Structure prediction request, 584 residues.
Amino acid sequence: MALTFAEKLLARKAGKEKVTAGEIVFCKPDRLLMHDNAAAITDKIGKELAEFGVRDPEQIVIVLDHTIPAVDEKTATGHKRVRDFVDRHGVRHFFDVGTGVCHQVMVEKGLVLPGMLAVGSDSHTCSYGAVNAFATGIDRTEAAALLLTGETWFKVPQSIKINLKGRLGELVTAKDLILTIIGAIGADGADYCSVEFWGDIGHLTIDDRFTIANMGVEMGAKNAVFPVDEITRGFLAAIGIERREWQEVWADAGAVYRQELTFEMDGIVPVVAAPHKVDNVQPASELKDVFVQQCLIGTCTNGRASDFGLAAEIIGRRKVSPRTRLLLLPASKSELEKALDAGDIQTLVEAGGILLPPGCGPCLGAHQGVLAPGERCISTANRNFKGRMGCREAEIYLASPATVAASALTGRITDPREVM
Amino acid sequence: MKVWFYGDDINTDMLFPGKYTYTCSKPEEIKPHLLEDLDPEFASGVQPGDVIIAGKNFGCGSSREQPVVGLKAVGVAAVIAKSFARIFYRAGINQGLLLIEAPAAVDCYQPGMAVELKVIEGKVKIGGQEFIFPKPPPEILGIVEAGGLLEFTRKRLKESRGIK
Prediction:
């Protein structure tokens, strides 16, 4: 019988020959990711941890990234308690403040590999589908239970097959592609589903696939995944992973899908998700009367060296408009270093960009770059929900790094092709 | 019992703003901010036994569980929606908060109509019409019956070590 990616991977993890959509299986995830919320998670089970310990320290990855450097005494104390937990329970995969956003760290450190099953107490855990993992978000309580037992239940999802055809045009990016897809199928279009990307993916880099998989949850997907190809193998070799360390999985021809969709990449234009829903997608060129007081390039969606490279190429020797401010939020220290080596951070800072530490900061409105009532921000992040950047009377527009860079030059939403 | 009625795609930022995620984790800290950016009257007006009725994709967005913990703590009897986002739905199971996926029931509801929940029978009565909602699948019924995932896990751990 032909199986989807999700059916095949969950069958393997559950030790079964086959499973079908709708079935519930119990599996031990290869990885359990937590971030700053590890403090609150371990708080729930203090007594049990003292009595039983953690089930498997090797399964656990913790990255401090959401409120870094600490915002106040409370978040500082949370970080300290996480470090104490890590020491006490022998958690080897721990990355302290400044390493980067957890999802970027998981992929760049090779902690998640093709064919792995990963869960994380963060909704953007779905990013690891970029490297062929089945990865999905869970809540804090489930993470607490996983620390104690090492396993959880999974409902085998139905799958959606997305065929990508052709090639993206000049200054049109993977962000425009995924926003266009979400705009077409809706914020709930893939609820509970596993989304597989097929077709002409040969020119989509791991960075591109990361951006796409990262936003899977914005259409409700349980996970979003790419097959392993030369690009994946090249990426894994570059980070020092040997071929024998992973066992990739892909769907069989003839597997059953809930829906099959095709997107022609040649026809895609720079787009923007307007407030307050990610599926409110419009061409950037139609929003040129919208002035923006803040521009953000970064986050786990688009904070890699390639994103800063594209922005620097667009901005060049020009300056950020005095009517707006440009924030730079690298996805990790390693990506920041790559962008520094390329000279792109220097270009962007000389243009007026403000460099923030690698982390989540402004994306969730916890600190850094919080907006004022009536202000608008154009951002490369993944959510434009009301209040997301700390103020419910502010507006957030989502776009590619190219569109945000172009908008930083003009102070209003700008199709990057107009400034090149 | 009051019915709080909302639309489609109610996300977790509206249910509990992200800026509080790392400073409020306990029910007492969560309660004053519940639904703050959606309905400023909710936190002060909600009473035990109240019900929320909403459109599709309720609870979309982040994995934060504070909305579920908070709704359970203030005594919301159930959320009835056309559909739920999956992390939120799992969180409902994990906290023992009743989430009812019943699109026909939501379509039937008009503000002011009486709503009657019959949890044990798996039925909800809206404006005189009865809608059936299915029980959770047997594999996860144990979690719901234990009152949530942590209670279920504690029980399992003790059993596995032969502790009563």
